[in-house]
Design a protein that fits this description.
It is a single chain. This protein is mostly helical and 105 residues long. It has one domain. The chain has five helices and two strands, in the order ααααββα. It has a two-stranded antiparallel sheet with strand order 1-2. A hairpin with a 2-residue loop joins β1 and β2. The longest helix has 19 residues.
């Protein structure tokens, strides 16, 4: 089973329901327009489709556990989190001065 992120649907909602171009007119969010949203969502889709989604079955078959004060994660989760951090995903909304991208939540 594979996962395909609904990027077109998300972009429709961001453009027509959330009015992202109006958000991009707010001070500090000038770089947060539709083009930026599309680039972020497309890259996020690649990450989730190629890295996170393939861990669903192994995660069900060999879930993380805690025993005697030690956490053991599903094989692949540690590497996936490292890729998540390396890609800067945890800092999208943080100011650029702190290593983030300054995007709106």
């Amino acid at each position: 089973m594979s996962y395909t992120a609904p990027v077109k649907d998300m972009l429709f909602a961001i453009e027509h329901l959330a009015n992202i171009e109006q958000v991009a007119q707010m001070p500090g969010f000038e770089d947060a327009g539709l083009d930026t949203a599309a680039a972020v969502l497309e890259e996020c889709a690649r990450f989730n489709e190629g890295v996170v989604a393939p861990l669903n079955v192994p995660g069900d078959q060999n879930p993380s556990s805690w025993k005697d004060g030690v956490v053991t994660t599903t094989p692949g989760f540690k590497d996936a989190f490292a890729q998540f951090a390396q890609g800067g995903w945890q800092g999208l909304q943080h100011p650029a001065s702190f290593g983030g991208q300054g995007l709106p939540k």
